[in-house]
Amino acid sequence: MSTTTFEGVPTVGPSAAIEPSFLTSENTIGSWLFTRDHKRIALLFFASITFYFFVGGAAATLMRLNLATPEGLLQPAVYNRMFTMHGIIMVWFFLIPSIPTTFGNFFIPMMIGARDLAFPRVNLLSWYVFNLSGLVVLFSLVMGGADTGWTFYVPLSTVYANGYVLAAALAVFINGFSSIMTALNFVVTIHRMRAPGMTWMRLPLFVWAIYAVSVVMLTATPVLAMDTFLLAVERFIGIGLFDIQHGADAILWQHMFWFYSHPAVYIMILPSMGVASEIIPVFARRPIFGYAGMTIALMSIAILSFFVWAHHMFVAGISIYSGVFFSLMTFFVAVPSAIKVFNWTVSLHKGRISFDAPMLYALGFVLLFTLGGVTGLMLATLAVDVDLHGTYFVVAHFHYIMVGATVSAFFGALHYWWPKMTGRLYPEMWARSAAILMYVGFNLTFFPQFVLGYLGMPRRSYTYPPEWQSWNVLSSAGASILAIAYLLPLLYLGWSIFWGRKAGPNPWRATGLEWATPSPPPTHNFEETPVVSLGPYSYDPEDDTFIDQEGVSHAR
Amino acid sequence: MYHWIPFWPDTAAVNGVAVNNLYIAELALSALIMVSVVIMMLTFCIRYREGGSASRADRVRKTWHFEIAWTLATLVLFLILFVWGARTYIWLYRPPPADEEVYVVGKQWMWKVEHAGGQREIDALHVPVDKSIRLVMASEDVIHSFFVPAFRIKHDVVPGTLETLWFKANKTGVFRLECTQFCGLQHATMSGEIDVMTGPDYAKWLTSQGAEKSLAQQGADLFRAHGCSGCHGENSTVHAPPLSGLYGTLVHLQDGSVRRADEAYLRDCILNPRSFTVAGYPPIMPDFSGQLDEGDMLKLIAYIKSLGGNQESRR
Amino acid sequence: MPADTRPVPEMQYATLEQQGETAQFGIWVFLTQETIFFGALIFTYFLYRITYPHEFAAAAKDAVLWCGSLNFVILVTSSLTMVLSINAAAQDARPNRMVRWLIVTVVLGFLFLIVKGYEYYLDFQDRVVPVLDFVAKPGEGSAGELFWVFYWVATGLHAIHLTIGIGLVLYMLLWRIRRGEITPAYYAPLEVVGIYWSFVDTVWLFLYPCIYLVGRS
Amino acid sequence: MTMGPEVDARRASALPFVIAWIVILLTAGISAWTAFLGLGIWAPVIQFGIALFQTALLFVLFMRLKGAPSLKWVFAVSGFFWLMFLYGLSMTDYSNRQSWPPAQASTRSQLQVDQDHR
């Protein structure tokens, strides 16, 4: 049944019959809830994280409504709990799992020519554990929420906060297991399950990005798990390793927290970089500029991300020499990011660029990421950070990276791969409008916050002096546009499932292996294990042809 | 101070001027990077749009030259900023010899201020212009962060330690004081005013406060009340380290290590004496943790400092 | 599945070799994560121990050295019997020798838990249980309690890991081996369990000097 | 790799494992012994050194890293490697923070600075 042809990786011979698509092969509820198919699990994750995205978004809406006037709308206690739950839910229940668990789950096996992830049961378990932690965080939210900020700084979180901090911390702890299981699966799959001919330097950049992010998840999450575990213990029994009364160090929590949570920022952004690197060559119809440089940049960001965490603590009372070291490292980590921005931009040079919705999202991603990046440099500069730390400047900066860039890339990926996932095309004009609306709404929401930050508005405040109202009103107005832009895709993508045009296997004329199967793909992805003979992105803009990864040329 | 739409905060201290200059330089560089990316992207997008007739021949092929050039250029620029930022940071966080010292205690949700002369304020701080002011800060409960936007200075106030910060205002006026570390329910209202006054006005203000005892005198009272004087007093027969002239000097500890007797050290010694047994003395001092609040602690430290010492060699 | 047929690889694998190798690689990736998890806990210990050496020495005197040492011997021995069982699985077509060594392993695992339980009992007698019943001994100040918090958290987490290990061995014994799924041709599942088991042992190698060898001189 | 004939050979003898077991117990005895000698700071250094050595034995022999593909080695070591980041880089802070660790501040460098100033 099998033969070993390449690097000891065996192939699967042709199967007897063409299988039905993974969506329609079985239709019972049980066939979804107990599925081991990575594509179905991806859709399960997609449903879960979409739910949490809108829960977190609702909290954000309340916050922006409250901040439209200095007098506010919410009780201070409610506002504090809203921003805490917004942070916790958006970070751990949307951003971190977002691209890896959905598009990663769905497309990593397909892009490397495998029939499934290495451990499908672990993959399903990851979804259940994710939802278990989700139930715990929803319990915390429904009971009134935690009121510590998503960073859970001690001793506020251990002693002084009144909310359901224990439940929230446990939710984060449990959520870590889900992250680790997913990451482990990707690492093992990418190492062990590649199709014959799929060498490392022929991997699509999205696979590289997911690999980098999985390594970061795997090595950073345990520290957070231990940190939140100790927090939960201390909160539960009343004494622990962060107890200042017993001579413990309050800043230790921050060290361990940021040891995870700074790499976590890269967990959020690396997959989006992979998405942009997939989309831009397809719609520019030319190879990505500097493929090798891009892979090196991805991996060096992943490694360097562990050397910079204390830049969140420049004013926290750490040693000033330590601050100098971490600032230097932060400047270093900016270099590979700068390389990537440069390469994406040059990848447009002499292309044959069409502006379909995924491309609009990808270009938006590059611009928002660049602005987020340069403001990140300002925060990395020690003396300027002393001023800006803890103000709205920081809020604006990380929203540019985590929401502007990552969510743009998420929607880009969603539009790019939607035809493959569902077999249907969405209405293009609606999609382009949503992309533009999202870009405008985002900038209107968060750019004013840079100004507010330099003016000195502290983050996590439910009120502010009246002279700052004009900027806050602008920001709130932008947020309402953003909300519409986020809701729009729900409508037209939902519509397209039933009434959209049939997509065909390769609507974008892309080179990847995932496009070599029918849309939606059959349960086992490939009738026959593909044999790869080329790197990704073999597009030729001169005559608008391309060669897919199996080496087949396609005319225009 | 009030603008309809404020774009730029007041800059009212020498610290603020230094940070402001760096900020403007970074803003310019950021704008440069942003604009060049946007121009490049726009040019390519228009010129090489799908229907465009521009030639696609002779594409830039795989080459390292561009990447290396771009990397080096960005790295050099970044390193310049890094050095500038780091130098300013060290200057910001290393208080020079101070003209005045002020003690600040953060607690949910107020800033309590005590001047050396014993004058107390809440959520307000009166300081003279053109004098360098050194703040010694403690927290009674959670982590707070002392932030004056107009001075561009900020430092977290961490419970369990003493933190220091300094500034030198160069403009009179009233400026906002904030807490930028989320500290619980009323974090948003944990703000106050910094009132920078001319020298004579400040002197007038100090005398109008009606403080009876200076901070050091209040500390001396505590020193007696808690029985410290029984061992550390001038006429004590107990073999305990003398405190006069201690502040700022180097202390050799039993375990062979050496510590500078700064505020944080004095605080640690009072709260956890066994870890700081001074070389040549028996470990007999009782532990005062739980008996003194942060305000008392600052008074005791002010008293010990008033006994003389090496005031110049501060961190 | 009849006991004598070679098991079929899962759908996503082409061969059993690929499946077995992947499972072993998977457990190593998992252990990377576990190493960091326990390493982070020991980091907190490390920090406080260098900060409060005298307090920690005073506090750790109450740790029951003979229990910790006995458990050290038990665990290392159980790792050995686990390996002997895997060796047997690789060599013998009949499972007898493998099963025998596995039973010894699981008994040693339970023995560890019993000794640990007795040690906890002694700790209660000694009043070193933070929150419930804690009396600071002379010289340990307030920081000594940090040692005991670490002690309970670390040994508790280790015991949970060991219990999971016992569960896995029992799963092998009562399910996989009984169904004839572990054979010289395919014993990767047992090997994966064995690697996990030895890792739990490794954690104890570090907890032992952390807890029991402090403040003895 | 689990099934190649050469692997069977490595599985054949129990002797290396028994020797490793004896070595681990003996070194553990040494480790416990050092605790009573009053070696000060060296005691934990020796003890953790021995623990690392024992770990290496367990990893290489019991957990069968010997002869395993380099990929497994990489992941086996990377846990410890990443912990070095946590320990090492945190120490850039703790080793010379203003008030931490309370009794053991980096004394030598402070002394040096002090003498330079005088």
Task: Give me some keywords for this one.
heterotetramer; B: 315 residues; alpha+beta; Immunoglobulin-like; Cytochrome Bc1 Complex, Chain D, domain 2; 2 domains; five-stranded mixed beta sheet; 12 strands; C: 217 residues; mainly alpha; Four Helix Bundle (Hemerythrin (Met), subunit A); two-stranded antiparallel sheet; 6 helices; 74% helix; elongated
Would you kindly provide a written description of the structure presented here, covering whatever features stand out?
The complex is a heterotetramer of chains A (556), B (315), C (217) and D (118). With 556 residues, chain A is mainly alpha-helical. Chain A has helices at residues 29-33, 38-67, 76-112, 120-142, 156-160, 165-192, 205-237, 250-284, 291-304, 320-346, 357-380, 382-388, 392-422, 428-455, 469-499; strands spanning 2-6, 9-12, 538-540, 545-547, 553-554. Helix content of chain A is 64%, strand content 3%. Chain B has helices at 14-47, 65-93, 199-208, 215-225, 229-232, 263-271, 294-306; strands spanning 100-107, 110-115, 120-122, 124-128, 132-139, 144-148, 153-157, 163-168, 173-179, 192-197, 250-252, 258-260. In chain B, helix 4 crosses helix 7 (294-306). The longest helix of chain B has 34 residues, at 14-47. Chain B is elongated and about 100 Å long. Chain C is mostly helical. Chain C has a single domain, classed as Up-down Bundle (Four Helix Bundle (Hemerythrin (Met), subunit A)). In chain C, strand 1 and strand 2 (133-134) form a beta hairpin. Chain C is elongated. The model of chain C has no long low-confidence stretch (mean pLDDT 91). Chain B binds chain D through residues 161-164, 250, 253, 255, 257-260, 262, 264-265, 267-268, 272, 275-276, 313, 315, and chain D through 98-100, 102-105, 107, 110-111, 114, 117.
Summarize the model shown.
The complex is a heterotetramer of chains A (556), B (315), C (217) and D (118). Chain A is mainly alpha-helical and 556 residues long.
Q: Helix and strand succession of chain A? A: EEHHHHHHHHHHHHHHHEEE
Largest sheet of chain A: 3 strands, antiparallel
Helix and strand string of chain B, N-terminal first? HHEEEEEEEEEEHHHEEHH
**CATH architectural arrangement of chain A:** Up-down Bundle
Write the layout of secondary structure elements.
The complex is a heterotetramer of chains A (556), B (315), C (217) and D (118).
Chain A (H helix, E strand, L loop, with lengths): L1 E5 L2 E4 L16 H5 L4 H30 L8 H37 L7 H23 L13 H5 L4 H28 L12 H33 L12 H35 L6 H14 L15 H27 L10 H24 L1 H7 L3 H31 L5 H28 L13 H31 L38 E3 L4 E3 L5 E2 L2
Antiparallel strand pairs in A: 1-2, 3-4, 4-5
Chain B lengths: L13 H34 L17 H29 L6 E8 L2 E6 L4 E3 L1 E5 L3 E8 L4 E5 L4 E5 L5 E6 L4 E7 L12 E6 L1 H10 L6 H11 L3 H4 L17 E3 L5 E3 L2 H9 L22 H13 L9
Parallel strand pairs in B: 1-5, 4-10
Antiparallel strand pairs in B: 1-2, 2-3, 5-8, 6-7, 6-9, 9-10, 11-12
Helix pairs in contact in B: 1-2, 4-7
Chain D lengths: L4 H8 L2 H20 L7 H21 L7 H25 L12 H11 L1
